């Protein structure tokens, strides 16, 4: 699949090989949510119970803060905690400030899916 260039002593790769490498890389990126067990559609289903208190299509406060653009914000609603997957998972697990704790109500896969969905908002 490669040729030796006698003039420069370098190996040249056929364009088809590069296309294959790029195709495989793109496929891996697209499959990453599957590989890591995150499913945004299932996360949206989990969010239905969150939607009673949180808006998905707005950052306006309902009963709890609106979650549109959550992962684009610097901090959670407390204004201090940085928005990271870990801090959001902790908030889901522990609740607080009127929000119930979901550590025992949602399993790990449901939380993974929920976080994958929240990242799309």
Strand-helix topology:
Layout: E1 2-5, E2 10-13, H1 15-35, H2 40-50, H3 85-94, H4 108-118
Antiparallel strand pairs: 1-2
In short:
The protein contains 4 helices and 2 strands.
Structure description:
- There is one protein chain.
- With 121 residues, this protein is mainly alpha-helical.
- Helices cover 44% and strands 7% of the residues.
- The chain contains four helices and two strands.
- It has helices at residues 15-35, 40-50, 85-94, 108-118, and strands at residues 2-5, 10-13.
- It is globular, with a radius of gyration of 22 Å.
- The termini are far apart.
- The mean pLDDT is 83.
- The helix count comes to 4
Query: What does the average pLDDT come to?
Result: 83
What percentage of the residues does DSSP assign to strands (E)?
Answer: 5-15%
Strand count, sense and closure of the main sheet?
A: 2 strands, antiparallel
Q: Which structural category do the helix and sheet elements fall into?
A: mainly alpha
Low-confidence stretches: none
Q: From the coordinates shown, what is the CATH architecture of the largest domain?
A: Orthogonal Bundle
Give the number of domains. Answer: 2
N-to-C SSE string, H for helix and E for strand? EEHHHH
What overall form do the CA principal axes indicate? globular
Oligomeric form: single chain
Helix content: 40-55%
């Amino acid at each position: 699949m490669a040729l030796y260039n006698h003039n420069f002593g370098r190996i040249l790769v056929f364009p088809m090989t590069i296309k294959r490498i790029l195709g495989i890389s793109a496929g891996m990126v697209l499959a990453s949510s599957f590989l890591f067990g995150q499913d945004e559609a299932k996360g949206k289903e989990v969010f239905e119970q969150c939607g009673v208190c949180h808006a998905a299509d707005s950052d306006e406060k309902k009963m709890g803060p609106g979650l549109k653009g959550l992962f684009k914000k610097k901090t959670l609603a407390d204004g201090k905690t940085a928005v990271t997957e870990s801090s959001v998972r902790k908030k889901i697990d522990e609740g607080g400030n009127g929000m119930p704790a979901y550590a025992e109500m949602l399993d790990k896969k449901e939380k993974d899916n929920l976080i994958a969905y929240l990242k799309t908002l």
